[in-house]
Amino acid sequence: MTAPVRVCAVGDVPTGEARRFAVDGRLVAIVNLGDDGFRAIDAVCSHEHSYLDEGEVDVDEATIECPKHGSTFDLETGKPIVLPAIMPVEVYPVSVSDDDVLIEV
Amino acid sequence: MADQHAFDDAAFDGLPPAPDFVRSLRKAAFEGFRSLPIPSQETEEWRYTDLSAFDLDFVARPPRHALTTSNQPLDGTGVVFCDLDRAAEEHPDLVERTLHALVPIDRTKFTALHAAFRTGGTFLYVPRDVRIELPLQSATSLHDHGAAVFPHTVVVAEEGADVTLIDRYVSPDLPSAFSDAIAEIYVGDGAHVRYASIQEWGLGVTHLGVQRARVGRDAEFRSLAVGFGASLARAEAETVLAGTGGFSEMLGVFFADGTQHFDHRSVQDHEAPHCTSDLLYKGALRDASRAVYSGWVHVRPGAQKTDAMQTSRNIVLSEHAKADAIPNLEIEANDVRCGHAASVGPVEEETLFYLESRGIPRAEAERLIVTGFFQEVLDRVALQEVRRNAELAIQEELGVRELAEVG
Asked: Is the ipTM, as predicted for this complex, more than 0.85?
C-alpha cells in the first residue's frame, strides 16, 4: 500500500453526492456522506460500463445506486446488494487532512 | 442534468468562421444532432454499448494537433498535408467533395454532433502517381477535463498515388472527456494507402470513432487499428471495395484492462467483383474489462469472385474479463470465397507454467505471451516505421501495467 494521495478538496463534493476523479490510473468516485465522512469506490459499475457517481447516494444506508440498471453498492465494502451486478467494486480507505480528501490506492 | 449539455445555440453561434460550404454542413448537422436520437441498444449496431444515459455535458474544444512529414520535402509534389480548416480555406474544391462524403453527417446523432462542432483535423491529398516514401504522421491530443474533441482525418489518394499516414490520439487520464472521431479515406484507382490509427486516450475519455475507406479499381488499402486507451471506446471501421480488383487488409490489436469497455465493429463491403479483403483483429483483456468484436462481410449482388476473410482472436487473462466475437457474413453473389473465424479463450495454463518453471514471474510471463500474441498482427505490417510505432505503443501499455503491479 502506498502513501495516501490527494484526490480533491472537501468542498468539491457536496453532501449526499458523488464526484468522479482520475487517480493513479483508475477512475474513483468520492462520495460525501455528510457527518459520516467520505467514501471512495471505483467509479465504474461492475456489471456494465456506467458511472456510479452519476447515480443516487443513500446517506443513511451508505449505498450508491448505478444509474443504468439500479445495482446498489455498499459504500463500506463495495459489495452489490441489488442485482444485476454480482461482482464487488473496489473500495479505498479515505482520510481527510485539513481541506483535502486523500485515498490509499 | 441528463438533458443539459453545452452543445446549445450559444456554443454553435460561437464557432469560428469557416467557408460557406462548411457553414452549411454545420447548420444541417446541428439540426440533425438535435432531431436524431441517441442510438438505441435495441439496434444491432449498438447492442453492446448503451449510451442512452450518456450525458453530453461537454465543451467543444479544438484538439491540439501536430503534423509531421518524416523530414521529407513535400514541396513541388502537389501534396497537401495540413490542418483541415486551413485546407477548407485554401483548397475548397478538394475538401468540399470529400468532407462527409464517406461518413454522412446524419449517420448517427454523434456524427451530426461531430459535423456541427468540429474544428481542426487533418487533411492529406496526394496527386496522381505521386509516391510518398516515408509515413506522414498526425497527432491529436486533449488535455482538459470536460472537453469534447472532434478529430477528423481526410485522406485523398488520387490514381496511382502511394502514401502512409499514422494517426495518433493521446491524452492524460481525466475524470471525463469525449472524443467523437471520423476518418474518411479515398483510395483512387491503382493507389496504395496504408493507414494506422493508434488510440491512446487516457482513462475517463469516451471515444466514438468511425473510419470509412473507399477503395478504387486495382487499388490497395491496408489499415491497422491499435486501441489501448479510453474508458469506453467504440470504433467502427468500414472498407468499401468499389472497383474491380481492389484489395483491403484490416488489422487490429487492442488491450483492455481495469474496467475498460471496447466495442469494435468492422465492415468489409464488396460492391465490385474480383476484390480481396482480409481482416485480423486480436484483443487481450484483463481485470474486469469487456470487449466486443462484431464484424460483417457484405458481398453485394454482382460482386463475383470475391475473396473475403475475417478473423477475430481474443485472450482473456482474468476470470472477470469478458470478450465476445460475432462474425457475420451476408452474401448476395454465388461465386465467392468467404470465411470467418473467431475465438475467445484464456491463456493456456501449461504455457504459463512452463514460463514460471523457468523463473519468470507470472506478470512477466503474461506480458511475454501477450506480446507474442500481438506479434502475428505486427508481422503483417510491412512498413518498419508503422510497425515500430505500434510495437512501442504495445510495450508501453504492457510495461506500465507491470510497474503498477510491482508498486
From this structure: no
